[in-house]
Amino acid sequence: MSHDREEIIAQLGGDDAVRRLTSEAKADALEHHLQGKIARFPTAAQVEAQIETRTYRQGVGFLFHNAGKTVKKLQPMPAKPTLKDFFRLRFFHTANHVLQSANRARQNGMQEEVILACLLHDVSQELIRVDHGWWSAQIFEPYVSEKTAFAIRYHQALRFYADPAFGYQYPALYREVFGEDYQPEPYIEATYSMVRNHPWYDLPRLLTVNDLYSFEPGVVVEFDEFTDLLGRHFKQPAEGLGFDNTAVAHIWRSIAMPDHPL
Length: 262
Fold this sequence. Notes:
With 262 residues, the protein is mainly alpha-helical. It contains 14 helices and no strands. Helices cover 50% and strands 0% of the residues. Helix 6 packs antiparallel against helix 7 (112-120).
């Protein structure tokens, strides 16, 4: 049972993270772990067979699909939208998670490049979920440091590979989503090999550690808690995101105006 205890602690993010949990949260974590021990995960072939049972593709962005329910009319964006405006008016499905992630990284004493990467890493999933690490890094590259963009871009590939030295285990959720026998595509494997030997490896790896365990129900972190961090490290364009003529402006406009047919 000692091995199980160590595995549970690692899955929850380490001893410090466990100490911050309530008794109820610890009980829920234990129950979830035991359920995982007896769960029967699909194979990759069974996951693929589900494709033609859906009316949408799994890679569709959250803004464009509402799980079979009708979507709601969106409030117009300001003429010169800021990052805060996007969090408030467009990042409905991803904002709470990335705010929790950034808050967790801050509590764990991470460097500011990692905290900022945690705050930004998943928001491109509002537009598209496929290769979201690359998409998120791309839309933020004109506005953040090279290290922050590096962490965002490569956290996605690293999530498929355990690293006990950082307390990161392969997510049980991935066995359910991708299949228990899933093997990452060759480009993911090549990316992992490159990043694993890169001097900045710790940046995206620390993002994965502060990412996986940041889906806690009922926990609300306010965007304004990161105002000072963003003031130091985020280059907000005066024209507004989407209107500053960068190579990524059209991507921001797509997120701002998802109901436009052309």
